[in-house]
């Protein structure tokens, strides 16, 4: 396959996301400017200018009209997807780490970091309400009891929120009652860097610094599968059409000794969802892979790396013909 | 000097000689000496973009790019989004990908990694192992046969599980790069079954940089089956360091190889072959 290499960022990519229909790819990086691209040919549609610090997360609503970004400049911004203008900004006391639209697109959530004596907060807003209104729900996580949340996801039917934490814990928060911790599990032994849902939202895959990715049942947080590698996993995604998962990671940029820069040696690894065995690798990045996403139709996937490049890969026949022998 | 009545119209010929594009460019230049502007033309479904620029040597270069225009059927919302006006940093971009931001990368293939395949390959590549397996079978069979006769049946049954055990004895194949305690960069043959007969290892030096494992295989296999070829490579550039270790199964084969190859001229260098010194437990 001949991947498209998108070069819109000057610094490491932090997250990439497809929209529901798959024709747009949103990429955010440590350079404060989210980009949006057409996936069909890699053409850049535009950039969202306004943040002043690392943008940690991005999400787009179901009809691709609004974009949500969370950044280290202590704000979470809502943008008009098509024109690039800011609709609303929520100011916070510490960096916003993860931000998501709910399934219906009417509510958003974001989580903040633990910084400068401010405890991490989880906030939920209804975006249909006037922009300066109070959050629909907001609660603080006491870090003496629980480590800070690194990533979050909306649960099915907006009933609960799932968060992944610094120490490997995952928690369910009840949104009906108002921020009550339903239950938490600690299957990972080190920080969880990314969590992604399957296309039917019944399963979620977590990527952790403890060199594994784990597959959980979303409603109950029961551990179902573990995928082992030899390097910290920064991101993982589940294929929407096949029993495959892809893992990407690598050591921190600082730890990597200079290697042969002619080949991009960092690879994305494909595992079989059920058998937990690796079956394929795709090289190309010059630095650890920080974010992975499957196209909603499963025919392609993208990866964003520490090297600032986003690579969009269209799978070959050989990928679709591949049958895992057991 | 051309004669006046030669019949050749030199003016026309001069015009015809100006058919090279470089001369056309000279003519098209604007008053202040700039390059001619970008031009595009669409013929059928191929769009051609012609651009003139100066390359690194300050020479005028003509760059022709051909694009195929594809039409795709998509949903209304996707089609609507494709026609959006660009914004932010792309506000001044032309239609189509901007070369500064979008590049078609080199071909990469998904490397299919399969532990099962490697196990099977391992079994096939090893003629001596199957020989040993047969010998083991016969030995066990006759050993049990020697005891009381009724045990015939059990002997045969034992033969079968032995067979399967022998083939299962190599534990799940671990690729060399993931094995602990060994730097096996440059190793090209599977070496899972421990006990690499140290007595049958030879060291070849003064290899040329282009020598590959396959060359070494061809060079040494006439002397006997090879257990392992290790070609030392530079960690960063993957270039051959000029020496290699070859493991034979039989010490005699190794001895024959030393006698024959030592002093042999190979790719403009004279090879040196000798017994390898035993390796220390900690490898580089």
UniProtKB/TrEMBL annotation, chain A:
The keyword Protein biosynthesis applies. GO terms for biological process: cytoplasmic translational initiation; formation of cytoplasmic translation initiation complex. It is found in: Cytoplasm. GO terms for cellular component: eukaryotic 43S preinitiation complex; eukaryotic 48S preinitiation complex; eukaryotic translation initiation factor 3 complex, eIF3m. Keywords: Cytoplasm, Initiation factor, Protein biosynthesis, Repeat, WD repeat. WD repeats lie at residues 6-47, 48-89, 185-226, 282-312. SMART domains: WD40. Gene3D superfamilies: YVTN repeat-like/Quinoprotein amine dehydrogenase. SUPFAM superfamilies: WD40 repeat-like. GO terms for molecular function: RNA binding; translation initiation factor activity. The keyword Cytoplasm applies. Transmembrane segments: none annotated. Component of the eukaryotic translation initiation factor 3 (eIF-3) complex, which is involved in protein synthesis of a specialized repertoire of mRNAs and, together with other initiation factors, stimulates binding of mRNA and methionyl-tRNAi to the 40S ribosome. The eIF-3 complex specifically targets and initiates translation of a subset of mRNAs involved in cell proliferation. Component of the eukaryotic translation initiation factor 3 (eIF-3) complex, which is required for several steps in the initiation of protein synthesis. The eIF-3 complex associates with the 40S ribosome and facilitates the recruitment of eIF-1, eIF-1A, eIF-2:GTP:methionyl-tRNAi and eIF-5 to form the 43S pre-initiation complex (43S PIC). The eIF-3 complex stimulates mRNA recruitment to the 43S PIC and scanning of the mRNA for AUG recognition. Belongs to the WD repeat STRAP family. Belongs to the eIF-3 subunit I family. Component of the eukaryotic translation initiation factor 3 (eIF-3) complex. This is Eukaryotic translation initiation factor 3 subunit I. The lineage of its organism: Eukaryota, Metazoa, Chordata, Tunicata, Ascidiacea.
């Amino acid at each position: 396959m001949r991947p498209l290499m998108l070069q819109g960022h000057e610094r490491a990519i932090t997250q990439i996301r497809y929209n529901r229909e798959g024709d747009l790819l949103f990429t955010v990086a440590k350079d404060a400017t989210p980009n949006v691209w057409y996936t069909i040919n890699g053409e850049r549609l535009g950039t969202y200018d306004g943040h002043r610090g690392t943008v940690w997360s991005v999400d787009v609503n179901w009809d691709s009209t609004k974009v949500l970004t969370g950044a280290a400049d202590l704000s979470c911004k809502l943008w008009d997807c098509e024109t690039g203008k800011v609709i609303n900004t929520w100011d916070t006391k510490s960096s916003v780490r993860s931000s998501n639209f709910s399934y219906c697109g009417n509510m958003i959530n974001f989580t903040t970091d633990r910084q400068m004596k401010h405890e991490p907060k989880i906030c939920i807003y209804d975006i249909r309400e006037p922009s300066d209104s109070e959050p629909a729900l907001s609660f603080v996580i006491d870090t003496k009891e629980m480590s800070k949340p690194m990533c979050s996801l909306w649960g099915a039917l907006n009933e609960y929120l799932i968060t992944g934490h610094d120490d490997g814990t995952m928690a369910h928060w009840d949104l009906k009652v108002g921020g009550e911790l339903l239950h938490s599990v600690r299957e990972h032994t080190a920080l969880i860097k990314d969590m992604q849902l399957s296309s039917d939202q019944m399963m979620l895959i977590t990527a952790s610094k403890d060199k594994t990715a784990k597959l959980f049942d979303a409603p109950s947080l029961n551990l179902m599968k573990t995928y082992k590698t030899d390097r910290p996993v920064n991101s993982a995604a589940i294929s929407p059409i096949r029993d495959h998962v892809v893992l990407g990671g690598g050591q921190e940029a600082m730890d990597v000794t200079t290697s042969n820069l002619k080949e991009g040696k960092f690879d994305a690894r494909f595992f079989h969802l059920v058998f937990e065995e690796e079956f394929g690798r795709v090289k190309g990045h010059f630095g650890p892979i920080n974010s992975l996403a499957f196209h909603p139709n499963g025919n392609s996937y993208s990866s964003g790396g520490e090297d600032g490049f986003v690579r969009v890969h269209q799978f070959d026949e050989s990928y679709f013909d591949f049958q895992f022998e057991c | 000097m051309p004669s006046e009545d030669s019949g050749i119209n030199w003016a026309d010929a001069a015009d015809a000689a100006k058919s090279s594009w470089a001369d056309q460019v000279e003519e098209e230049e604007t008053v202040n000496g700039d390059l001619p502007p970008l031009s595009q033309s669409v013929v059928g479904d191929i769009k051609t973009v012609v651009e003139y620029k100066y390359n690194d040597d300050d020479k005028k270069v003509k760059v022709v790019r051909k694009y195929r225009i594809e039409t795709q059927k998509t949903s209304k919302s996707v089609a609507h989004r494709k026609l959006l006006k660009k914004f932010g940093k792309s506000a001044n971009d032309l239609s189509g990908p901007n070369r500064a931001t979008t590049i078609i990368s080199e071909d990469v293939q998904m490397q299919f990694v399969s532990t099962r395949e490697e196990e099977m390959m391992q079994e096939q590549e090893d003629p001596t192992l199957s020989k040993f397996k047969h010998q083991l079978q016969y030995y066990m069979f006759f050993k049990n046969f020697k005891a009381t006769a009724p045990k015939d049946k059990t002997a045969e049954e034992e033969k079968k599980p032995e067979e399967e055990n022998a083939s299962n004895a190599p534990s799940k194949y671990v690729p060399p790069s993931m094995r602990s305690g060994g730097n096996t960069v440059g190793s090209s043959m599977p070496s899972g079954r421990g006990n690499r007969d140290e007595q049958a290892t030879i060291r070849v030096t003064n290899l040329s940089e282009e020598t590959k494992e396959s060359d070494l295989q061809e060079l040494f296999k006439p002397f006997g089956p090879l257990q392992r070829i290790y070609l030392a490579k530079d960690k960063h550039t993957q270039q051959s360091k000029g020496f290699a270790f070859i493991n034979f199964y039989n010490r005699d084969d190794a001895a024959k190889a030393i006698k024959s190859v030592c002093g042999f001229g190979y790719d403009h260098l004279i090879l040196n072959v000798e017994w390898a010194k035993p390796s220390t437990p900690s490898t580089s």
